[in-house]
Amino acid sequence: MKKLAISLTFLSLIFASCSSSDDDTVTPPPTGSGEITGDITASKTYIKGTYTLSGTVRVKSGVTLTFEAGSVITADASTGTDALLVEKDGKLIVAGTAAEPVVFTEKSKTPGSWGGIIIFGDAPIVSGKTAEGAPITTATSEDGTNIVYGGSNATHSSGSLKYVRVEYAGKKILDGNSEMNGFSFYAVGSGTVLENLVAYKGADDGFEFYGGTVSAKNLISYGNTDDSFDWQDGWQGQANTNWYAYQTGAGNFGMEIEAKSVNNAFFPKVSNITLRRAAGTATEAGNPAEIDAIQFKKEGNGEYSNIVISGYTNTYTNAGVTTNAVAVRIQEAATNTNQVAGGKIKLLNVKIDDAATLQTGAGAAGFTIAFPTGNFTTSTAATGAALTPGAWAIVDGVNLLEKL
């Protein structure tokens, strides 16, 4: 009996040491909330949370603004003009992930309700030429903020944007004509990281580059009513890849490419491009002839490879003349002479899915388009953009990559 008593005592000691109070307590991480407004004059990090954006928030020179993954920042058109603007030598770090993107949206979910993300860097631009033929290396922003941009630091960094979605931007401001895009990159340098970005249902361009040297990877431009991708001022990004545009409802060019009528020696490069236009998509009011997949004008150029084009079958009739949509339109004779014949426009491995879509077209009478051998090639094996699915590409339950 002594042995039994000892055993029972031992067991009672074991069970006594395992009380419910010893269970691990799981404490969820803190989440943020509040209003973001005014000038950001000291570096600040917003932890994962839900925030409101009020007015034009400016990240000042020398300051870094950071958003953690999973944050949602909401503007409200009823309170005025909202935008997130990074001044030259300021930095924006947006550290989203595929599962937890950082989303900038607007309360009413109406296209054109706010100004999107606007970044000013210090990289070179070419915005024209003087009467003596010298390059003009600065310009004034066309978004209504009237900021002078254009610098000399090609490798300048304005921060890092990863897995970021901008919704319902493209607001008309001040004079009613100046517009902000989903993403506006003014003289942004190659030290800036742009990866996995979505411009969703804006009232102007999805992405616009104003000169600079920055490159962008894994872009989605979905349902934007002007151009899906647009650039000017001698933009020369060299490492761009996986660009996907889906135009629906209203939309102009898939890609609008210009260089302010400057015959630059350099050009940008983009690989793996998909441009799709949904049936019934109309051009934006006031621009009835902007119906093509890719347009080159004002000496725009570049090298583009592995391209898939579908749905650009619109026609437009004016004064008895019918214009058909084309895969590639060359707008003026000078662009044809200097850029096409000059070998500075290269379209390699192009697949046009619709028999009704013509391959090329001229925007004005008096010239014939003839690419040098090897500068415009077609391939039925072209695959276009390759993008990884995830929450970053889903809006209100709609998978933006469904049509890819």
General description of the model:
The protein has a 24-stranded parallel sheet that branches. It is 6% helix and 41% strand. It is globular.
SSE order and pairing:
Blueprint: H1 2-16, E1 32-40, E2 44-46, E3 49-59, E4 64-68, E5 72-75, E6 83-86, E7 91-95, E8 102-106, E9 117-120, E10 128-129, E11 135-136, E12 139-140, E13 148-149, E14 159-167, E15 172-173, E16 178-179, E17 183-186, E18 193-200, E19 207-210, E20 217-222, E21 229-232, E22 240-247, E23 255-258, E24 269-277, E25 294-297, E26 302-310, E27 315-318, E28 321-324, E29 326-330, H2 333-340, E30 345-352, E31 358-362, E32 376-378, E33 394-395, E34 398-399
Parallel strand pairs: 1-3, 2-4, 3-5, 3-6, 4-7, 5-8, 6-9, 7-14, 8-14, 9-17, 14-18, 17-19, 18-20, 19-21, 20-22, 21-23, 22-24, 23-25, 24-26, 25-29, 26-30, 29-31, 30-32
Antiparallel strand pairs: 10-11, 12-13, 15-16, 27-28, 33-34
Largest sheet: 24 strands, parallel
Counting DSSP E segments of at least 2 residues, the number of strands comes to 34
Helix content percent band: under 10%
Terminal-residue CA separation: 79 Å
Which features characterize this protein?
2 helices; 404 residues; 6% helix; two-stranded antiparallel ribbon; mainly beta; single chain; disordered N terminus; 24-stranded parallel beta sheet
Short overview:
The protein is mainly β. It has helices at about 1-15, 335-340; strands spanning about 30-40, 45, 50-60, 65-70, 70-75, 85, 90-95, 100-105, 115-120, 130, 135, 140, 150, 160-165, 170-175, 180, 185, 195-200, 205-210, 215-220, 230, 240-245, 255-260, 270-275, 295, 300-310, 315-320, 320-325, 325-330, 345-350, 360, 375-380, 395, 400. The protein contains two helices and 34 strands.
